[in-house]
């Protein structure tokens, strides 16, 4: 059993981050169907999901059992919204995330509400967004041409969209940067 869990953890690490939150370090293996209720699936690899410790604990404590990050249908509507604002003399900026429920069906709204609520994703995205944008800014701090910055940010957004899909916090952050010209002029 430990060999299987080790292989699952390694496969998860190869893909990068926790599939539930998108940024946590993979340390745990979650049973999609609880092994206490479904012992016959306890070592079935499609039932084992590499995850970060926090998502695994929140999922287990909340009873979230209706979402599998690898096999459930992905919602293609761009419902995750990031609003970045400049905070002079305190923090360079802060980010607020929200869900645009108008783009979702009733079933999708229920799923998003369940997953994002039980895993505290909005709050957790807001806790990492400042460092994420600061990393982008630091990497390209030498760019002084506004048009070049916009081209870079469009490319950055396109790559995040392709890599993570429309509702990853990095994609939503990239879109917010790209669409907020007044913020860009104060950052760069």
Account of the protein in words:
The protein is α+β, with helices and mostly antiparallel strands and about 190 residues long. It folds into two domains: about 1-60, no CATH class; about 80-185, no CATH class. The strands form two sheets. A two-stranded antiparallel sheet has the order 1-2. It has a two-stranded antiparallel sheet with strand order 3-4. The chain has helices at about 1-15, 55-60, 105-120, 120-140, 145-165, 170-180, 180-185, and strands at about 25-30, 50, 80-85, 95-100.
Index terms:
7 helices, two-stranded antiparallel sheet, 188 residues, alpha+beta, two-stranded antiparallel ribbon, single chain
Give a nutshell description of this structure.
This protein has 188 residues and is α+β, with helices and mostly antiparallel strands. It has 7 helices and 4 strands; from the N terminus they run H-E-E-H-E-E-H-H-H-H-H. Strand 3 and strand 4 (93-99) form a beta hairpin.
- Overall geometry: elongated
Order of helices and strands: HEEHEEHHHHH
Overall structural domain count: 2
How far the N terminus sits from the C terminus, by CA atoms, comes to 52 Å
User: What does the main sheet amount to?
Assistant: 2 strands, antiparallel
